[in-house]
Request: fold
Amino acid sequence: MADQEDDIVLAELPDEELIPQMHDDLYDGLKDEVEEGVYILLDRGWAPYKVLTEALVAGMKVVGDDFRDGILFVPEVLLAANAMKGGMNILKPLLAETGAPRMGRMVIGTVKGDIHDIGQNLVTMMMEGAGFEVMNIGINNPVEKYIEALQSFEADILGMSALLTTTMPYMKVVIDTMKESGIRDNYIVLVGGAPLNEEFGRAIGADAYCRDAAVAVETAKSLIARRHNQATAG
Reply:
């Protein structure tokens, strides 16, 4: 296989072949190749935002879907996420310069008592890839940490994750505390994690339950757009 890979010279591929090749390299967690592809597209005059969406985000969506469907496992997803990060690091300063569309700001973290972060790391990468600014506050977060982060980061969205049935109820604690503080309506609240479902999301008062990273991005986009429209109308 290695010999075959050596035969592919990325710079010689036309755009319509380079993009699928980058998706494959991202899927395989080949960070150097992904970074090289990003530089090649930029040299060819691609806008940073176009590179981001067509080369990286589109490739990461396949990784997310295959992770959800049990085709890929955690180590492979981490490798892919690391390769994506390599490409993102090149694009981030350029995106800031070109004033790429900023979708909104999100705080994401796993709830108190839960130390799983694979899913939320994937959501973070995909959200950043879609043009959101994300503050990932990591694992085992008490309600105070969420609220402090939301206010200091001036976030639009709160994302909470749980992988254990025992930590799921803590999401309600966070939402109830936000209600008591009179700040619940200031934020879009998205929840996710393997043991959750839509019914649970509704029951605890979240705006939406997102079954995977791809759904999280689509849901965040549509809820932010709806919010903008309401603000304009009002």
About this structure: The first strand starts at residue 104 and ends at 110. Residues 146 and 152 are 10 Å apart (CA to CA). The beta strands are 104-110, 132-136, 157-161, 188-192, 208-209.
